[in-house]
Each structure stands twice: as C-alpha cells, then as structure tokens.
Amino acid sequence: MARFLERLVNEGIKVIASTHSDYITREINTLIMLSSSNKKSAELRERYGYSENKLLKPAQIEVLLFIAFQINILAERPDRFWKPVRSENFYFSEKL
Description:
The chain has helices at residues 2-10, 22-33, 39-48, and strands at 63-67, 70-76, 82-89. By secondary structure, the chain is α+β, with helices and mostly antiparallel strands. The longest helix has 12 residues, at 22-33.
C-alpha cells in the first residue's frame, strides 16, 4: 500500500490517506529516509532494490491532524515531537 501511495505521489497526484497502521507509516518513513543522498542510504537502496525514482522526498509529504472541523498542519521539531505549524478551519458543504 505504501508503494502504491508513493507511485501516486510521484505521478503528481495529490493524496490524502488516513491510517492508524504502524506498518504503512513505517514504510512511508523508509521511502523518505532512503531518498537521502548520503552513502548509507545509497547502500541500503542498492541492497534492498529501491530505485531512486520510487522514493519520496520530504517536501512531497505533509502530515495533517484532523480534529473537529480543524486541520492542523504538523512539522517535526528537533526533539522529535510534532507541533502544529498552522491550523485551518474547514466546513462541509450541505450540497455535497
């Protein structure tokens, strides 16, 4: 599933996915971490068969927290906790 989402994103399709799955989160994290240009990432890409065009760049990902008609856009702090960087209110149209 994570590789399917990666393919959609790399084809330019905007994707919103909701998950509680540690597996999906870990796989997406792996695709992001392997996109790094350091030597260790290159070795791991080669060892496990990840091609560079099948990875995700950090700029392609945005983490959203949905709470009662509000979207919180999150960013990672250096101490590894998430904090909201911006919040936006949203309302569903009655004519959907």
